[in-house]
Each structure stands twice: as structure tokens, then as C-alpha cells.
Amino acid sequence: MILAMLQFEIILLVLWQVLALAQAQPAGLSTNCTSKCGIVTIPFPFGIEEGCSMDSWLKVDCNHSKPYLGSINLELLNISLDGTMRINYPVYNICDQTTNSMHGLTLLKSTPFILSPLRNSFVGIGNCGNFSLLSNDDSVIAACSTSCNQNNDTTKLTCQEQVKSPLKGFFPTMSSSVRECPYSALVEQQWLQDNLKNPQDIKHRTHVPVILDWSIFTLTFDGFEKKQSNKTYELSSTCERSACSCFSTEFPTVRCKCLQGFQGNPYLLQGCQDTDECAENADICGPGKYCENFIGGYNCYSSPITIKKLKLDMIIIGLSTSFGSLFLVIGAWWLYILIKRRNKIKLKEKHFKQNGGLLLEQQLTTFDGSVDTCKLFNSKELDKATDHFNIDRILGQGGQGTVYKGMLADGRIVGVKKSKAVDKPKLQEFINEVVILSQINHRNVVKLLGCCLETEVPLLVYEFIQNGTLFHYLQEQNEDLPFTWDMRLRIAIEIAGALSYLHSAASIPIYHRDIKTSNILLDDKYRAKVADFGYSSNHKSTRDLWVL
């Protein structure tokens, strides 16, 4: 059992790694993107070919194996995903107008790049009395001067000042007490310390390395997310799954980074992968300790046995917690279903009582000794028969309710009338009418098959009459069925016969009270069927029959 769980865990880890590698290419980008120019690696969001960079600011031109950042036309020495890049920046010579034209206050304006503060130094080179200023618009960012002793022997022919403010561009100002061509330059501090024994060697160079901070414009970043959203590549949501975070460095720009314990490219889908600290540094835990890596970090233990025991305990706890949570969720779901079902049954019982169900049951057992006169349908049966009272099943609407076409489980086609709410004072009258109307058995009267009182409003179930209402045939003449005088006379006689039966032959006289052509239905042989009694009554009331 334990061996099987360990094998299962190893399989999951392998699958996770395979998926991560498969998704390391940014979705929506060409797979033919070149990743190097000469010896310089070009990582995404930078790119060389069209469509390989996130935007035009990050497009790289590869000329004779030398990469140039096309947007500012400066040579790239390397790019770091920590948000910095090293470029070749020209040395300023007061006598060289060609070099001077490459400088200016607006060099990086409107770009997502800045000259990195704290990592670059301003250097001035000249003879005694040379004075150099680094200006940004109207502000002085750095200033330095060379000096000599009293005998005019050179004691300091270079000066160096750290740049502490971010720059979008600069212009050096230099002056000298002797006729000469002084130099000045912005230089990467670390390069200056590691590569030059004498800073004056700068004047023998045309370019020196400078650090730029790079980021991505917010609008470009948001647009890239939306563009790639249909290709399952959304940076912010991907970061949540890829152990990276995106943040605004300086409005309106954005930068992303891998979280602690992860490394890689945060701009790629699943680009940040776990760092195996134990493999990279065997002594990370110190002498006599054992290291175990996990996603996002590592643990140190006193012995390998402890690692295995803890690992096994973690697997057992994890499986127990998972199964326990699963059973808890299933139990909660079943409890929810039972409570919902119980509440539904109680609601049906409440509606049954409110709609006079108890009174109807009493009537059915006492009225003429007949128990099966009117069938009591359940709400589930009628809901299924009418396809959940679909509007496509509506046969007609009137003052007393809406009639739907339905099919019962035994295949019978019926008309289900959803009545309007019955007032409590008229509840006794409504139940009496249901019982009496269900006993009517006349070929020219629509048969009431039963009712359902479990719903909020009563449902009445009638036999289905397929040819619609007499009103339809009188108002819209049908060439296929000429409505002749003989047919009209026959229908009038059938209606009269039905009314005569209701008034005189029924055990209790019934007066329709709402005779009109829209309440006269025609069956498959176009015989009249009196329907929709409304609030019928055993008290006389007159209403004119529409002229046929």
C-alpha cells in the first residue's frame, strides 16, 4: 500500500514536470523565434523576429551577430529578467560633435526604460581644474572636478560621482582651465571596478557599459493579456499558477518576477519553476544535516530516516485529509438534498391544505359514495407532462388561467389549466365545482379528469380537444374547411343540448355563466365541446350565446 502511494506520487511529479515543459513556450507566439544574437541571449518579452516580442519597444535588431535595441538604437550587451539590461553607451568628448549628438535629455523619454540609479557612476576625465556636471532638465544630478597640488603636479585627473536619481536622459557640461578636450561618461559601477585599473582609460574608448532598467507599458501588458486570453495565456492569472507576480514599478509600467524559491522566465506560461536548493547546494543545511526539497522551498532534517518517516506521515495525513474532506462534502451534499426534499414535501402539503385538498378528499369520499370521481394528480407528474410548463405548450389563456398541452405517463394527451389563485372565501365553492364538474359525462362537454392542489395555484386536468376554438373558425375562414350553414346549425344544436343537460339533466343544475365562442372547442370530428366553466354556479345567470 505504501509503495503504491509512493509510486503514485512520483507519477504525479513526472506529469507535472512534463506539463510545465510543454507549456514553457508563450502561447500565441511563433515557435520559430530566435533566442540568441551572437553570444547574447534574447529572452521573451524581448524578441528579434516580427511577433516574437511583446511590443515594438522590446524588439531587437540583430546586425552582424550584434544585438541592438531598435527603439533607442543602442547595442545590447546582455538582458536580465530581473528588469535590467546592459547597453553600450557612448563616451562624451567635448571636442567630438559626432559623439555629442548621441546624447540628449530626451534620449529615453516616452520609453519604458530608465538609466538605473545606484548602479551607474558619472565619471569626469581631464587635466587640472576640469569641472563636469551631469544635468537632467534643470536639475544637477552629479558634479565632480579634477584638482592639482600647489606645484601643479597632477594629483587627481579623474573624478567619480554616484548617480542616485533615475534618469530618462542627461547632458554633461564640462569646463577646463587649460586647452584640452575633457571627457565624461556614465558608466556601470561594477564594470568600472572590475575592468579598469585607471579610470582615465575611458577616454581611449568610444563606448562603455551602462545599466538600464526595463519594464512594460501597462496598456501594452493589458492588451497582450486580452490578445492571448483565447489562447490560454493570461499573464496575471498565469502568475497565480506559475509562482510569479506582476507589479507596477513606476506608472505607467509593469514588471514581473518569479517568487522566492522559483526561477525562470515569469513572462512565459509556467515559466517559473521550482528551484531545487538541495541539488544546487549540498551543504545548504550545514554539516550532519539532510536536505529535502519541496515546491517553493526546502527542509533540513537530522537524518534521512526522519525524512522518510515525515514523508510517509505527510502522505498518510494528506490521503486521510483528502478522503475525510471528500466524505464530508458528500455527506453535506446528501444532507442538503434531504433537507431540500423535506422542505419541498412540506411546501406541497401546505399548498394542498391552502387549496382545499382536505375538503376535496372529504367530498370525494362522501359525495354520492363515489371515491374515484375526480383523480388527484401530483405536481411532479404534471410538471413532467407539460415539460415544466414550457411556453411552447400553451394552448390558450383566459380570465381564469392558462391552459398547457401535456402528455401523461400512460400516453394520454390532456389539457392542464393553471388556474389563478382561489380566494379563501370562495374555496368551498371551488371544491364543490371540481367535484360536480368531474361527474359530468356528456359528449358535448369537455371532461374534467382531475386536479392537482400541491402547487401554489390549483391545476385542473381536462381531456384534450384537438381542433381549437369555434372563435378561430368564425374569425379566420379556412378554404380547406368551408364553415357551412349546416355545420353552424349542428354546432349550435350541440351547444344547446349541452346547456340543456347542464341546466336540467345534471344531478345538480349547473349554469355556465361564460358562454362565448372562445369557450366552445371542436374535436376531431368538429363536434362542439363546451369548456372553461369559470366560476360556474347552481344559481341562475344569463349570458348571450354569440351568433353562429
From TrEMBL:
GO terms for cellular component: plasma membrane
Domain of life: Eukaryota
Transmembrane parts of this sequence: 314-339
Topological category with respect to the lipid bilayer: Single-pass type I membrane protein
Keywords: ATP-binding, Disulfide bond, Glycoprotein, Kinase, Membrane, Nucleotide-binding, Phosphoprotein, Serine/threonine-protein kinase, Signal, Transferase, Transmembrane, Transmembrane helix
Keyword Transcription on entry: no
Alphabetized InterPro entries for the sequence: EGF_Ca-bd_CS (IPR018097), Kinase-like_dom_sf (IPR011009), Prot_kinase_dom (IPR000719), Ser-Thr/Tyr_kinase_cat_dom (IPR001245), Ser/Thr_kinase_AS (IPR008271), WAK-like (IPR045274), WAK_GUB (IPR025287)
Keyword Ligase: no
Molecular function terms from GO: ATP binding; calcium ion binding; polysaccharide binding; protein serine/threonine kinase activity
A biological-process GO annotation: cell surface receptor signaling pathway
Pfam family, one: GUB_WAK_bind
Protein name: Protein kinase domain-containing protein
Biological source species: Dipteronia dyeriana
